[in-house]
Specification:
Strand content: 5-15%
CATH topology of one domain: Rossmann fold
CATH architecture of one domain: 3-Layer(aba) Sandwich
Largest sheet: 7 strands, mixed
Bound molecules: guanosine-5'-triphosphate
Catalytic activity: GTP + H2O = GDP + phosphate + H(+)
Family: Belongs to the TRAFAC class translation factor GTPase superfamily. Bms1-like GTPase family. BMS1 subfamily.
Helix content: 40-55%
Number of strands: 18
Protein name: Bms1-type G domain-containing protein
Structural class: alpha/beta
Oligomer: single chain
Main location: nucleus
Strand order of the largest sheet: 6-5-4-1-3-2-9
Number of helices: 27
InterPro entries: AARP2CN, Bms1/Tsr1, Bms1_N, G_Bms1/Tsr1_dom, P-loop_NTPase
């Protein structure tokens, strides 16, 4: 049987208590006496140590000092906004849910819009999930007091991290904390440790030394470990936020909802447009701070939270509507009525309004959804232009990304194909690719040797973007120039699971970091001038430049004739070039035709129709007597010799015609160029003699060349 032991209670009174306190007193006296007798024994033994201690205490003192900042806020402090940012699927929503659960003991069904919670007596915190969109990142950077940058540790840094970091830097740089997730995907403890270290050092390099990085070691029942969430929450709760000078000069307002109220004075709401203002009314604070009564901690009742968009309670605020959730069993919908609708309709005439409502109930998709799926076809043979634009559901610009000239692009197999094969493909493409990634991976030892130290230094500072298909989506991985040489991690891969292997192989190519001291040193050298960031900024700037749109004017009216014909020529040249090399040479006839017709249909819709220029003059009029007589001699009963004569005549004529038709040509055997006749001159007799002469000359030239060739190769 389990029996709990009672804690020891020290004596509060009595002789035992007295004797104990006497002993203690004696001991204390002795120690003070000792100090008094030999004070030097308790002073610093070395002056160096003393100096170091003194300077340390002075330094600590100095660090506490700050330039005084004026806090212009009054009244209750506004909630501190914690923006949770990271690439898709990194665990942003899950982290917010876990933090909310920690603070409020409530489960959040979904994370939508800002979520405000009371985290302490004097503190409210608002969590906002930052969508993966540059514009949203810019908005989030404007109101964030703290940014939690989530990184999928099993994959490494992605471009979203750097993009947001840079955006933060130009917005006054609020506080940041890094959070590593997906650490449970590592089976090898050694590898996990190394990856943690490597990512930490990289994080420090990109931000500042000692920047806080949290590790969320995995999922327990679909949630992050309580202890880790507790630690993170504690950091958020006690964090000191100093007013940012940038923020005070560029104040921003985070608007939950907007109700369109009409006239009289117009005002501009950023991101929404010009509106007329009817009035401004202050609503009661939905998430007030608890009463200021002196008591320790928060009571459960006071642990309020306000998440209007996240479906808490029975109310849900959408962009343009408010929904009240009523359980189905509480309401009798007319749907049941609908089933017997036929019978009731016979009895009495139904109201138009009722019919309308019922027809609305039947619709499966809203108008927005229907419009979203609709397609517009501008030209009959054109591929339909989807109205959704280029973006896919997640807001990725996958198609566009692959054409980014600054970035390195690599394509893995499409969804559903074998992942392992995909990884192999990646590897092979890396090794075969001469420009871009393969140079950075440093697999080619010749390249390495040929490089000057300066080039190496330049290369080390560079951050490149590598687009690949991983974990079910396109990811924009960050590849660091200084991570090439290390292959240690690859060696330690062996024990990993198959899936992990895939992920880690990719990691290993791009990341190094087994030698941390080296890595660190290099990082500090190269990142002194923040070279990294300025380089990838280029790609950021390019991504924000609006894409080139199709000019409808050109599509309808066409380019100038010369423009259009040249573009056709170019297109054909291109296709010729493509076909001339390697496997492309042999192509099914249909494909080539299709390609050509596509090029004509698409970009060059306005090209003139050359089929209209058929020379009908060549066609013979078979109704004339001489013409149909001419065919009579070709039959068995006719005179064949006459027909042969006629044939000769028509052949010479045809030759002339062909010459004039095909114009310039080059004799590939001899390398000579021949100029063709102009169409208008085909009937000219003098020209024909000239042609004859030219032909004769050509023949002689050919003979001479042949003799020369024979002389060179007598056995041939
Ligand atoms: N194994 C593992 N899975 C995780 C971890 N963190 C999150 N996940 C899973 O990743 C998936 C995506 O998590 P979310 O919280 O929806 O990610 P998100 O960043 O909000 O995704 P988006 O909203 O699409 O941007 C969920 O199925 C999580 O269970 C982790 O540390 N380890």
């Amino acid at each position: 049987m389990d029996q709990s032991h009672k804690a020891h209670r020290t004596r509060q009174a009595g002789p035992k208590k007295k004797s104990k306190s006497d002993k203690k007193k004696k001991r204390d006296d002795n120690s003070t006496e000792e100090k008094k007798q030999n004070p030097k024994a308790f002073a610093f033994s070395s002056s160096v140590k003393a100096k170091r201690l003194q300077s340390r205490s002075v330094e600590k003192e100095q660090r506490r000092l700050h330039v005084p900042t004026i806090d212009r806020s009054y009244g209750e402090p506004a909630p501190y906004v914690v923006v949770v940012q990271g690439p898709p699927g990194v665990g942003k929503s899950l982290l917010i849910k876990n933090l909310v659960k920690h603070y409020t003991k409530h489960n959040l069904p979904e994370v939508r819009g800002p979520i405000t919670i009371v985290s302490g007596k004097q503190r409210r915190v608002q969590f906002v999930e930052c969508p993966n969109d540059i514009n949203c990142m810019i908005d989030a950077a404007k109101f964030a007091d703290l940014a939690l940058l989530l990184v999928d540790a099993s994959y490494g840094f992605e471009m979203e991290f750097f993009e947001f970091l840079n955006i933060l830097k130009v917005h006054g740089f609020p506080k940041i904390m890094g959070v590593l997730t997906h650490l449970d995907k590592f089976n090898d403890v050694k590898k996990l440790k190394k990856t943690k270290q490597r990512l930490k050092h990289r994080f420090w390099t990109e931000t500042c030394d000692g920047a806080k990085l949290f590790y969320l070691s995995g999922l327990i029942h679909g949630k992050y470990p309580k202890r880790e969430i507790h630690n993170l929450a504690r950091f958020i709760s006690v964090m000191k936020f100093r007013p940012l000078t940038w923020r005070t000069s560029h104040p921003y307002l985070l608007v939950d909802r907007l109700e369109d109220v009409t006239p009289p004075e117009r005002m501009h709401i950023a991101g929404v447009g010009d509106y007329s203002l009817s009035g401004v009314s202050a609503l009661a604070d939905p998430c007030p701070l608890p009463s200021a009564a002196k008591k320790k901690g928060l009571r459960d009742k006071e642990k309020l939270f306000y998440a209007p968009m996240s479906g808490i309670g029975e109310l849900l605020y959408d962009k343009d509507a408010v929904y009240i959730n009523i359980n189905d069993h509480l309401v009798q919908f007319s749907k049941t009525d609908n089933e017997h609708g036929e019978a009731t309709r016979k009895g009495k005439q139904r109201d138009v309004g009722v019919d309308l409502v019922k027809s609305l109930q039947k619709t499966k998709y809203s108008i927005d959804e229907k419009l979203g799926q609709s397609r517009i076809s501008l030209f009959g043979r054109d591929p339909a232009i989807p109205s959704q634009g280029q973006h896919d559901v997640d807001g990725h610009e996958a198609a566009e990304q692959t054409h980014d000239p600054v970035t390195l692009t690599e394509h893995a197999p499409p969804v559903g194909s074998d992942e392992e094969n995909g990884a192999e493909d990646l590897d092979s493409s890396e090794s075969s690719d001469q420009d871009g990634a393969s140079q950075m991976y440093g697999s080619d030892s010749d390249d390495e040797n040929g490089e000057t130290p300066k080039e190496k230094a330049n290369r080390k500072g560079c951050v490149k973007e590598k687009i690949e298909f991983h974990g079910g989506r396109l990811r924009r991985k960050v590849v660091f120039g200084d991570d090439i040489d290390d292959k240690d991690l690859k060696d330690s891969d062996d024990g990993m699971e198959e899936d992990d292997d895939d992920a880690d192989d990719v990691n290993d190519h791009s990341h190094s970091g087994s030698d941390f001291s080296d890595d660190d040193g290099e990082d500090q050298n190269t990142d002194d001038d923040m070279g990294n960031i300025s380089k990838w900024k280029v790609s950021l700037a390019e991504r924000t430049i609006p894409r080139k749109h199709i000019n409808l004017m050109q599509l309808v009216y066409g380019k100038s004739a010369s423009m259009s014909t040249t573009s056709v020529n170019e297109e054909q040249d291109d296709s010729d070039d493509g076909e001339s090399d390697g496997d492309e040479f042999f192509k099914p006839k249909g494909q080539v035709n299709k390609k050509l017709s596509e090029s004509l249909d698409g970009a060059n819709a306005s090209v003139e129709d050359c089929s209209k220029f058929t020379n009908f003059g060549d066609l013979k009029n078979w109704k004339q007597k001489e013409v149909y007589e001419s065919i009579r001699d070709r039959f068995v009963t006719g005179d064949w010799s006459k027909a042969a004569q006629r044939n000769e005549l028509s052949e010479t004529k045809n030759e002339d015609d062909e010459d004039s038709m095909y114009g310039d040509f080059e004799d590939l055997e001899t390398g000579e160029k021949y100029e063709g006749h102009q169409q208008g001159q085909s009937g000219d007799g003098s020209m024909r003699t000239e042609n004859d002469q030219a032909a004769e000359e050509r023949r002689l030239k050919k003979l001479a060349l042949r003799a020369k060739f024979d002389a060179q190769y007598p056995f041939n």
